[in-house]
Design a protein that fits this description.
Blueprint: H1 9-27, H2 43-56, E1 69-70, E2 78-79, H3 95-98, H4 109-115, H5 118-148, H6 150-159, H7 178-201
Helix pairs in contact: 2-5, 5-7
Length: 202
């Protein structure tokens, strides 16, 4: 629990009880009305959270760690903030996740059960169709952000020359330059976008 920093035992138990009830609901959704899930989660929050994690094929986005949400008693769960993307966009610790194809986030842990809801599944497809241009524009924006951090890049790799260091568990492939690494990521993102777009529209 990040906030409050020192929650009372009563608050901790309240949260634990709510999460247990939520998980119980997710595994028995067939007993409830189709739209019952929107009482548990903020659907708009979840859809953005889901697609950023799925689009980047973020290994930490599958509830292994680094997944955050907020909850206030009497309200639905809000997902976010998004965090921890070192094992994403093709830089994955598992070879199968380096592939820009195939679903990932929707097949694991809590997301698997949330996406089992026909309401969420349908809304996720609709969300992609409505916002797919934004996801592609993210690719087009990379050169802009790359130019903004030009000086930081030089300082970073002067201080920590790790581009060819594959002994670092978070760096999977060696690169001759920062630009080569960026180009590799951009190529991966284009392929990922094309695969998702084809799957959703089919």
């Amino acid at each position: 629990i990040k906030s409050p920093k020192e929650p009372s035992e009563e608050s901790q138990q309240l949260l634990l009880d709510h999460l247990n009830l939520f998980e119980n609901f997710l595994t028995h959704q067939y007993r409830y009305p189709r739209d019952e899930i929107v009482k548990w989660i903020d659907l708009d929050d979840y859809l953005l959270f889901y697609w950023v994690q799925e689009y980047s094929k973020n290994e930490d986005g599958n509830y292994a760690r680094s997944v955050f949400f907020t909850w206030t008693k009497g309200e639905p769960i809000h997902f976010g903030p998004l965090w921890d993307f070192d094992l994403a966009f093709g830089n994955a610790s598992r070879e199968r996740n380096q592939n820009p194809e195939d679903w990932y986030i929707r097949t694991y842990r809590l997301n698997y059960y949330v996406m089992n809801s026909p309401v969420v599944d349908s809304a996720a497809s609709a969300y992609w169709r409505k916002h797919s241009d934004t996801f592609y524009e993210l690719i087009d924006s990379i050169p802009v952000y790359r130019s903004i951090i030009e000086r930081a890049i030089k300082n970073e790799y002067r201080r920590w020359p790790v581009m060819q260091n594959t002994e670092n568990w978070a760096l999977k492939d060696p690169y001759d330059s920062y630009d080569e690494a960026v180009e590799t990521m951009v190529d991966w993102m284009k392929k990922r976008y094309q695969w998702i777009d084809k799957e959703i529209n089919n």
